[in-house]
Design brief:
The complex is a heterodimer of chains A (about 180) and B (about 725). With about 180 residues, chain A is an all-alpha fold. Chain A is built from 10 helices and no strands. In chain A, about 50% of the residues lie in helices and about 0% in strands. The longest helix of chain A is centred in the first third of the chain and has 32 residues, at about 10-40. In chain B, helix 10 (about 265-280) crosses helix 13. The N and C termini of chain B lie far apart (about 85 Å). Helix content of chain B is about 30%, strand content about 15%. Among the domains of chain B are: about 125-175 and about 370-435 and about 480-490, Rossmann fold; about 200-350, Dimethylsulfoxide Reductase, domain 2 (3-Layer(aba) Sandwich); about 565-715, Barwin-like endoglucanases (Beta Barrel). Classes of the chains: A mainly alpha (about 180), B alpha/beta (about 725). The interface of A and B includes residues 68 and 72 of A.
């Protein structure tokens, strides 16, 4: 009589399970590393501190009223104040390092729409009259900005559908140009 | 008991495996792109909004207008400027590839010097130190300095070099590169450097004597636009194109009639056509009488024999030409001075000879190619030790000149060699000091477009991006150096090149862009891509009218027929042109339009010739001319004469960056230092012999050869 473990199928089954475990382990490791990479901003920018001293969103993200993308502040803009303000902070020193090397700061994106979606900040801020918090949450209460909404189509339509000209704003080509 | 995994179990295990693999896969990282803002932003830039800047292309000397799409400070795409009267919004592959010159990873990051020429052990220098060295050495050399420029140099830079040379008492700059030589600029141009205008769009019969109009000849884009007009004229009229050339070019491929005449007989064919028009009174009284004044007495039978066109074909050609309303004869760059004169005499007979209009301001400089004899004179002076300093900008003589010219040896007798090349080329390797100029997409300038259209054009050139590397504009370097030389400081008083350009440009007469006042005129000049009159005021000046009968002696070939049985047809590569495009991988990788070959040098050979020599596609052969040898694989090509082999230029670089180095061979190795009638380099009358090397390579190409070349051998086509 054969032992159970002498069956070739049992060995194959065990091998498959081990392989699966390895694959799962690799997947988990990838996930951990990627989520860590996402959260690591090159300079831990403190939104709350800036808003508390009265600096508005548009001071840094100045293109939100005139271009599709809100834009990120140039290193020069940061250093315009931080050459003299809070120069002893390690974060500011890190920023100053970029300025000294004349390198751009590789900021991490918090929101990214798929390529097949056309979105313009200008339209929403100028024509729509929305303030930034409407979509981005109360960033003034955050340190490093965190995404508060998942920018999916249902979320967009939830608002477009409520507008007076919703029949126009829910047309496919408004966003999928 | 034997356990069995049933089919159902197997599927369950499989499904579980797939599910867990998919679930772990779901956690794969999203691709987060870093947002890199500017360190110092330009004022006018908006995030996510493209800006377009108009400028002038410098990939060849034609001077097409371009608009460049800039996104967040990076140049993303080059297109033709729709307003520009030369190219009207169109642009060729070479123009598109200019981005790869701008962002070439092998560009010099700043000025460098080397202790030993050819060592490639470049030491970085500070700009101040480099400019000071240039100043000191130029002051020492004085009248014993020489300046060598390329054909695609901005007018203002040419002007400043001229002023500097005059101030130190040195001869005027030499303007010479391979592009000008292979296009026949010297023979085509008038004394003032103006090139003839060939009004292809307005003609109904065009006979091209070997001019590759739609390829890299004078202006691929301009003649491409005109070719479109030529083929679709009002009321359904369609121009008729005859192309004579030993090897079918892209122009021959679209011609109505392709005549692979014997190489070097183009001028005689033109003279024969003249005589037939004169003696048969073709094309009306006026044309026949003009032809009588210009036709020399030649033996038509002799021309028919040497050119391998029958008498009937010659007569037919003359009849078609003379009967047309606006016939046009176009001479190719490989024709010598007399042959070109015979071809242009045909236009004088037809009344269709035109020259580019004069620059709208006498102060604007139009570059004028120096004769090859001037090159040899300079090489002689260098060899004799009379040249203490050589400044080279926009030309690459170490690559462009045949080895027989003795340039490299003579260069070792020049104590100081300074190059302004943005990429280290074969000449910069032999320089002591390299002060990299900015590439044309980062530079200021203007271009008196030649060949122009019926109206004069001054193209504008402006930086479309902030300079990528620490290169400095050569014009500004010259202006800085001039401050220390009293005579130069007086003739070059501008603080920088923009002040100089502005002063020149705002003196232009009112143009299509309108406006008044210095700032507005300057802004519109840059915004619209140049200056041109609102409408064409009449037709351009007529071309030179020859008054004496034109004799075209039989072409003397270099090499005896018994030793060198084949004609060599060198032609400018459609993509790499004279070799300046080899640093750009888009151009290297773009297949040649006729052969679909890329990234290499090849030898085109007729199937019957190949069969006779026992050579197959991809077999490496050695071509030997009286002056040198070249080894390259054979591309069996049905559209070439049996007695001719053709080789494209452009490869065989030892420098010019990673994409250019070590690919193919430079066919200039086969060329001697002889001059032809008209004083240019004799590169088109060479004979070679062919020897198989026994090696063979598999050639990658884009076409399917199966069923393409069979059948040509026995039919004896084409002869």
């Amino acid at each position: 009589m054969h032992s159970r473990f002498e069956s070739p199928w049992t060995w194959r089954l065990l091998g498959g399970v081990v392989l699966l475990l390895i694959l799962q382990g690799a997947g988990i490791l990838l996930w951990i590393s990627s989520s860590r990479a996402e959260s690591e901003a090159p300079v831990k920018f403190n939104h709350r501190a800036m808003v508390q001293v009265g600096i508005t969103c548009l001071f840094c993200h100045a293109d939100a009223t005139r271009a599709p993308a809100a834009g990120m502040p140039s290193v020069q803009l940061c250093m315009g104040c931080h050459s003299t303000i809070a120069t002893d902070s390690p974060e500011i020193q890190e920023l100053a390092g970029f300025w000294q090397r004349q390198e751009p700061v590789p900021w991490r994106r918090r929101y990214q729409l798929p390529r097949f979606v056309y979105f313009s900040h200008r339209v929403h801020v100028v024509a729509g009259g929305f303030n930034c918090e409407r979509c981005h949450g109360d960033v003034g209460e955050m340190t490093v900005a965190e995404p508060v909404v998942d920018l999916n189509m249902g979320w967009c339509l939830g608002c477009h559908d409520q507008q007076p000209n919703s029949h126009q704003l829910t047309d496919c080509v408004v966003c999928h140009q | 008991m034997r356990s069995r995994v049933t089919r159902r179990d197997f599927l369950k295990i499989g499904a579980a495996g797939v599910a867990s693999a998919v679930l772990t896969g779901c956690q794969s990282p999203r691709r987060w792109v870093a947002l890199e803002p500017y360190v110092r932003p330009p004022e006018e830039q908006l995030a996510g909004v493209a800006t377009w800047f108009a400028s002038t292309c410098r990939q060849c000397p034609a001077g097409c207008g371009i608009v460049v799409r800039i996104m967040n400070g990076r140049a993303l795409k080059i297109e033709g400027n729709p307003e520009h009267p030369l190219n009207r919004g169109k642009l060729c592959a070479r123009g598109q590839a200019g981005l790869q010159l701008l962002y070439n990873p092998d560009r010099l990051r700043g000025p460098v010097g080397q202790a030993q020429r050819g060592s490639r052990a470049f030491q970085s220098l500070e700009w101040n130190e480099a400019v000071n060295r240039l100043y000191t050495q130029l002051s020492d050399a004085g009248a014993n300095s020489a300046i060598w420029l390329g054909s695609a140099t901005s007018g203002h830079l040419h002007d400043l070099f001229q002023r500097l040379a005059a101030a130190v008492g040195a001869p005027a700059p030499l303007v010479y590169d391979l592009y000008g030589a292979l296009s026949g600029y010297r023979e085509l141009a008038g004394d003032d450097g103006a090139l003839p205008v060939f009004d292809l769009g307005g003609s109904d019969v065009a006979v091209s004597f070997g001019a590759n109009l739609l390829g890299p000849w004078l202006s691929a884009v301009r003649y491409g636009v005109e070719y479109g007009e030529f083929r679709s004229q009002p009321l359904g009229k369609r121009g008729y194109l005859v192309q004579m050339e030993p090897r079918m070019s892209i122009t021959g491929a679209v011609a109505d009639r392709w005549l692979p005449i014997r190489p070097g007989t183009e001028g005689q064919v033109a003279a024969a056509v003249l005589q037939i028009i004169a003696s048969n009174g073709l094309g009306g009284e006026e044309r026949a009488s003009r032809a009588s004044a210009l036709a020399a007495q030649i033996d038509l039978g002799q021309v028919a024999t040497t050119s391998e066109l029958s008498l009937a074909q010659l007569e037919d050609l003359a009849r078609i030409f003379a009967a047309a309303e606006h016939p046009l004869a176009i001479p190719g760059g490989h024709l010598d001075g007399q042959a070109m004169a015979a071809v242009r005499a045909l236009n004088a007979v037809a009344g269709t000879a035109q020259m580019s209009p004069d620059p709208p301001l006498p102060a604007l400089v139009r570059s004028r190619i120096s004769p090859y004899s001037d090159v040899l004179d300079l090489v002689d002076r260098m060899r004799a030790g009379d040249v203490q300093m050589l400044l080279i900008h926009g030309a690459n003589p170490a690559y462009d000149l045949p080895p027989g010219s003795g340039f490299s040896d003579a260069l070792s007798n020049v104590p100081t060699v300074v190059s302004f090349a943005p990429l280290v080329d074969e000449t910069a390797v032999q320089a002591d000091l390299v002060l990299p100029d900015r590439t044309y997409l980062e530079s200021w300038g203007y271009e008196v477009v030649s060949p122009a259209t019926s109206r004069p054009i001054v193209g504008s050139q402006q930086p479309v991006v902030t300079p990528v590397f620490d290169a400095r504009s050569t014009a500004d370097v010259l202006l800085a150096v001039a401050q220390g030389i009293p005579a130069a400081a007086a003739s070059m008083p501008w603080p920088d090149e923009v002040a100089f350009l502005k002063e020149l440009i705002t003196g232009l007469p009112p143009g299509a862009a309108g406006g008044s006042g210095t700032e507005v005129l300057w802004a519109r000049f840059l915004q619209h891509g140049g200056w041109w009159p609102a409408s064409a005021a009449g037709s351009p000046p007529p071309g030179p009218a020859p008054s004496q009968p034109i004799e075209v002696p039989a072409l003397q070939y270099q090499g005896q027929e018994d030793q060198y049985p084949y004609f060599l047809h060198l032609y400018m590569s459609d993509m790499l042109s004279d070799g300046r495009g080899a640093s750009q991988p888009w151009l290297q990788g773009s297949p040649d339009p006729m052969t679909t070959m890329a990234w290499q040098t090849w030898v085109e050979m007729h199937p019957a010739t190949a069969q006779g020599l026992g050579i197959e596609d991809g077999d490496v052969v050695r071509l030997t001319s009286p002056y040198g040898t070249l080894e390259a694989p054979v591309y069996v090509y049905a559209a070439i004469r049996h007695d001719t082999v053709a080789v494209p230029t452009g490869q065989g670089h030892t420098d010019l960056g990673r994409y250019a180095q070590g690919r193919g061979d430079n066919p200039l190795a086969l060329v001697g230092a002889e001059t032809r009638s008209g004083g240019s380099l004799a590169w088109s009358n060479l004979r070679v012999r062919i020897e198989p090397t026994g090696q063979s390579v598999a050639m990658a190409r884009f076409e399917n050869r199966v069923g393409v070349t069979e059948g040509f051998i026995n039919q004896g086509f084409p002869r």
